[in-house]
Amino acid sequence: PSSTEDFGCLLEDDIEVSPHYFRFVSEMMLALQREPDPRVVGISLYSPRRTETTNPPEPFNSTALMIEVMGAEHKESPYLLQTPCSWGAVYFPNHWEQFVDYLRLRFDLKPGVKSPHDVLIPSSRTNGWKGSWKKFHFELLYLRGQYLVYPNYEGQRSLSTNHMEKGEHIKSGDVDHKRQDFTVPLLVDGAPLLHLRSLKVSQLRVLNLFGKPWLREEELKQMLAGMASGASSVVPGVRQRQPSLLAVGEELSSVKDEIMMSAASGRLRHYGVVQNDGQFVIYRDDAASPNSAAPIWSTQTFVGEVNGTTYGLTLSPTGSLELSRRFHNDVKSDKLVWSSPHDRTRRHPRGSYVAQLKSDGCLAVYWKSPKNGKCLSLVWDTATKGSRYVSVLRVGATLSSASGDGMASINDRGDGKVYHGAVQSDGQFVVMSDHPNPIWSTNGYKGEVRNGALGALAALAALVRNVVYHFSLSKTGSLRLEQVDKTTGWVLSLVWSSPPDRVSRPAGTGTYHARLESDGNLAVYWADRRRSRRRRHHQGTCLSLVWQSIPNKVHTKGCIRKNCDLSLSR
């Protein structure tokens, strides 16, 4: 095109047009002027009887399809189809310039040289085409989500038709190009064009490149609800899966009508989908905002769509969500793509694990007690609410650098100062106040064996090995900073630890906990339940200091914390 006002009508030498073709194009251009739609890049004159992309080609009747999806009163409604047309079509100038640029990018224009920009459309017959420019036009429409407006009149009447004369693609005795499949009757009566004057482009149905209708928002939500409950593929005698839950032994597949759907939270609802591109993605949908569905969390394992490859999400017997890749439905070819950490707590063999997509969009794995099915213990979650800060770290809890977890002191001194302890991605746990300079970190601990280079080494390891760091309190009263494989949850190495408790504590008589105190001191205490019962005149639990980050800090009875150690002579 020479300008943005220069529109081209593409006609081959064996194409005949209806006397009303120009009026049809004009009415469609006016409709697009009233309601601009950036997805529409051209106007087809031809009404196809066969699909071009399916293998083998299938019969296509647009009038019957519109009756099915819109009702009999809309049987002659135009529609959007993701298919370019060479047998009579008007293309818009901006799009045609994009197509020419795409052709330059798509191949090198050198004989025998394969382009580095090869594109495959999943399941499309056009991937094997060798001598048609439409192959590349199909690719562009697919990649950019663009469409042409197609006419639709009863009896497959059209504004252009092909007389199927012998030429480059049609040979004598060609059984693949039968005249009855491609030569359509021309529209000779202009009366059916009158309805175009009130046409609303926004109400036209949209068909993909296989001639199948995309679902509208309400239809999609109804279908999603059916998919989540298993209603779309109900087998008699088989229990339907709860929409928000995934149990051990169940699988969500990228090739089946199976998803997760949370309970509604006000106007919000969340969907969990195993995608053909190799990811499990959680989407948030706001009922008050059309077309608002947006991803809020994913496994970040995108590999692109590959023919013959499917993905499945399962919950393992060890409490780990696992996303696996499978080739050509061969179970033996399964390969782990992503997994959440396994449960590291020893559980009763009669209990069970369950994954739930909660109403806030958080995907969580729980352990269900065999004694009380309503009692759930959290194993892992996606932490969609952001980082977690605690003032007390107890045995069994873990803070992770992956989600920005840390500790925060409680300001009980009245000076407004709060200290924060952060699990950093460079392999350190650091305590800081309002200013950026740390007052203490694990890097300064005298038992460190990294020769002062922990930060650089850990940061390099994080880039190379895809690791995170976990900060936890062991059953022996020792704080532990561990390097963990982000994918499997396996511990790779112990980076730092505080000394374990040197005093032998009788089992079941108390618990350890770590506290970030109001002066920035990180301390580990043993809470003795027996001494607390004997000394009822003292407030709170009786604590014994095990370790602290400020070595010379003195704890005395009656200090600000009130629940201090009563005997530090050991």
TrEMBL record:
It comes from the Eukaryota. InterPro entries: Bulb-type_lectin_dom (IPR001480), Bulb-type_lectin_dom_sf (IPR036426), Nucleotide-diphossugar_trans (IPR029044). SUPFAM superfamilies: alpha-D-mannose-specific plant lectins. Transmembrane segments: none annotated. Residues 243-378 form the Bulb-type lectin domain. This is Bulb-type lectin domain-containing protein. It comes from Emiliania huxleyi (Coccolithophore).
